[in-house]
Amino acid sequence: MAQSALINVIFRAAEKAARGLVRDFGEVENLQITRKGVADFVSNADTDAEKAIMFELKKARPDWGFIMEEGGIIKGTEADGPSWIIDPLDGTTNYLHGIPHFAISIAAIDKPLAKGGKLIAGGVFDPMRNEFFFAEPGKGAFLNDRRIRVSGRRNMVDCLFATGIPFKGRGDNSDHATFRAELTEVMAETSGVRRLGSAALDLAWVAAGRYDGFWERGLSIWDIAAGVLILREAGGFVSDFASRDKALASGDVVAGNPQTHLGLLKMLKDGRNRG
Fold it and tell me: Could you tell me if 110 and 174 lie in one domain?
């Protein structure tokens, strides 16, 4: 498929950042690492990748703003104009432990979310597998040059789900207890649950039919913006835990194909009620 100008910009930025990430991957003992919080790290790899992405995007769209994990919010020429939403290294902990499962996530939004902003493009690049997932509204979702769709599975017993597990420094004891109750319910009703450590790839993999659904709480907009658009363009559903279209604002995500999304919402609710 011939990619649009906007998708080409996203791909070039991600590809440039990926070169440094791949070069330094596995050399974690040589990376200068500082703690960003308990069990949450930021390395030179993150910041260097973000700088590379910013440079390419600003060159292509000089008036746009930025919403970034490391660099924060930078306003564009128009206060309520379009912005890039960037996670330069989603799966930092995997990266720092030499686990080859991480991604670069870049999305574009037409105006601030609080002003009714809509996603207008998104790309998730997995540099270790050379897989670029991307989408624009109304144009479908793609993996490299192939169109992708969510799985067609309907029965929960046949389905494989992904999730993110609360960890030290993320959530309190009640959050951990809630997750354990939900996980117990999902494990009992499905083919299995995976936790691989990158929400951007989790959503992209649901879009590609590798997973049948995904849930996690407390994510940031840069973790999920590109993945949400890709998944929806692949025929999937994304909501918060109350089935509202507020996942981007809340960071609480339940995703799947039309059948598994409903089934997952029910299982999560049943788990909380029993827990």
Answer: no
| Residue 73, amino acid | I
Q: Which of 271, 123, 130 is nearest to 203 (CA)?
A: 123
- 93 DSSP assignment: H
**Residue 262, both tokens:** 């409903």
What number is the average pLDDT over the span 186-208? Answer: 97
The per-residue pLDDT for range 77-115, each reduced to its tens digit, is 998 999 999 999 999 989 988 899 999 999 999 999 999
Give the span between the Cα atoms of 218 and 271, in whole angstroms. Answer: 18
Q: How far apart are the first and last CA of the chain?
A: 48
- Determine the Cα–Cα distance for residues 154 and 191; give it in Å rounded to an integer: 12
pLDDT band at 179 (very low <50, low <70, confident <90, very high): very high
User: What does the DSSP 8-state code read for residue 3?
Assistant: P
| Residue 181, domain extent | 156-274
Q: What angle do CA 203, 199, 187 make, to 5 degrees?
A: 80
Q: Of 148, 164, 186, which closes a domain?
A: 148
Shared-domain flag, residues 127 and 62: yes
| Coil/strand/helix, residue 167 | coil
Number of CB atoms found within 10 A of residue 19's CB: 12
Q: Specify the 3-state DSSP secondary structure of 139.
A: coil
2 or 127, which is more confident? 127
